[in-house]
Amino acid sequence: MLNNVKCLVYGYGNPGRQDDGLGVELALRIENDEHLSKYVDVDYNYQLNIEDALTISEYDLVIFADAALNIDKSYELNKIQPAHTITFTTHELSAESILALCQDLYNKKPECYMLAIRGYEWEMGLPMTSRAKCNLDDAYTFLTEFIENQFSRCIAGKGI
User: Fold this and answer.
1) Residue 12 CB burial class (10 angstroms; 0-12, 13-18, ≥19)
2) Which residues contact 125 (CB under 8 A, 6 or more apart)?
3) Helix 130-155 vs helix 22-31: crossing angle, to nearest 10
4) Residue 17 contacts by C-beta under 8 Å, 6 or more apart in sequence?
5) Degrees to nearest 5, angle at CA 23 with 33 and 127
6) Is there a contact between 12 and 64 (Cβ–Cβ < 8 Å)?
7) Sign for the pseudo-dihedral over CA of 13, 115, 57, 32
8) Which of 54, 83, 97, 109 is the most buried (most CB within 10 A)?
């Protein structure tokens, strides 16, 4: 926590399925970063769960990180809004749905972003592709600067 701003980086995906684990790998990098880990909490899982609404309700700033197949850049950051979506299984629960549940159940609306990291292959039991690793490096560098800028804005009194 810095200047009373609580920040969470939540990575999700399956590390056993090649590039699908990009979100988890990013979260692990943040967790192992001696500087950032002092100010940012980290969580990760295979997929988002309904219980994550309670988790994010305890933060001011939440950055979800996941692998993405359909983006043109190595990574993409977008601010997300709450969205009530109905899915057949909880396996498809979106970050927007988690934010909507957080707002409905806990009357909290943290500022949330989705950091999509470009992946290429999703085969079981194979290592992450080299191109995805390069995208992970780019996303990590970007996220480090983004978080530091967000905290600088708070210190300057400009909010998150």
Assistant:
1) buried
2) 16
3) 50
4) 122, 123, 124
5) 100
6) yes
7) positive
8) 97
Residue positions counted in the chain: 160
Is 2 a residue whose pLDDT tops 80?
A: no
What is the amino acid identity at position 67? Answer: A
* CA R_g for the chain: 15
- State the average pLDDT over residues 90-119: 93
User: How many whole angstroms separate alpha carbon 142 and alpha carbon 6?
Assistant: 19
Measured in whole angstroms, the distance separating CA 39 from the mean position of its chain's CA atoms is 16
Asked if residue 150 lies in contact with residue 60, where contact means CB atoms within 8 angstroms, the answer is: no
Decide if 99 contacts 109 (C-beta within 8 A). yes
What local confidence, expressed as pLDDT, does residue 85 receive? 77
Q: What is the bridge-based pairing of β-strands 111-118 and 61-68?
A: parallel
Phi/psi for 86 (5° steps) reads: -105, 125
pTM across the whole model: 0.92
Per-residue pLDDT tens over the stretch 5-25: 899 999 999 999 999 999 999
Contact indicator for 6, 41 with CB cutoff of 8 Å = yes
Token pair in block for residue 17: 């399925």
